[in-house]
Write a structure and sequence with these properties.
Layout: H1 11-34, H2 41-58, H3 60-66, H4 75-97, H5 104-135, H6 150-158
């Protein structure tokens, strides 16, 4: 009952299946190293966090190109995604124990959750990478392409 999806089940699913095939062996090795049995919660979350950690590592080259003194600036973005999935699993488990049934509206709420989470984390990631680039004297992404910070949008919306 995972709500995290791209909504269409198309391109996102294909991309994630491709990544899963590439990243699964790293997670399996870590599960084996830590001694978790296959199919357990410990095994699942070890594989999840390992996959996102490796994804962060894969982006170190991009960090180095943007600013060699800020290598690793994009890694938190990937670890936050694993954290979001963990929090989602907790909410789903609590809802299931409370007898909440999956409905169309639950799916819509899940899609809204994914969009909001991505806006919050991606904005921070893009901002961090861009600042790192500016420190290096390069405008990585023209500032006119940045979405306004979430706090600014909320303040405008509330009329404060």
């Amino acid at each position: 009952m995972h709500i995290l999806s791209d909504g269409s089940g198309g391109p996102g699913r294909t991309w994630h299946q491709f990544l899963r095939r590439c990243l699964t062996p790293f997670g399996q090795k870590m599960v084996s190293f830590l001694g978790f049995k296959s199919g357990t919660t410990g095994s699942s979350y070890t594989q999840l966090y390992t996959a996102f950690f490796i994804s962060g590592i894969a982006h170190l080259g991009g960090d180095a190109v943007v600013n060699p003194s800020r290598i690793g600036v994009s890694c938190p973005f990937f670890m936050f995604q694993a954290l979001a999935i963990t929090l989602e699993d907790i909410v789903i488990a609590i809802a299931c124990r409370a007898g909440v049934k999956e409905t169309k509206w639950m799916h819509v709420m899940g899609c809204v959750w994914v969009i909001c989470w991505f806006i919050v984390t991606a904005t921070q990631w893009v901002t961090a990478v861009s600042i790192a680039g500016m420190e290096n004297g390069v405008e990585v992404i023209p500032s006119k392409l940045f979405p306004p910070p979430l706090c600014d949008v909320l303040i405008q919306f509330l009329g404060a």
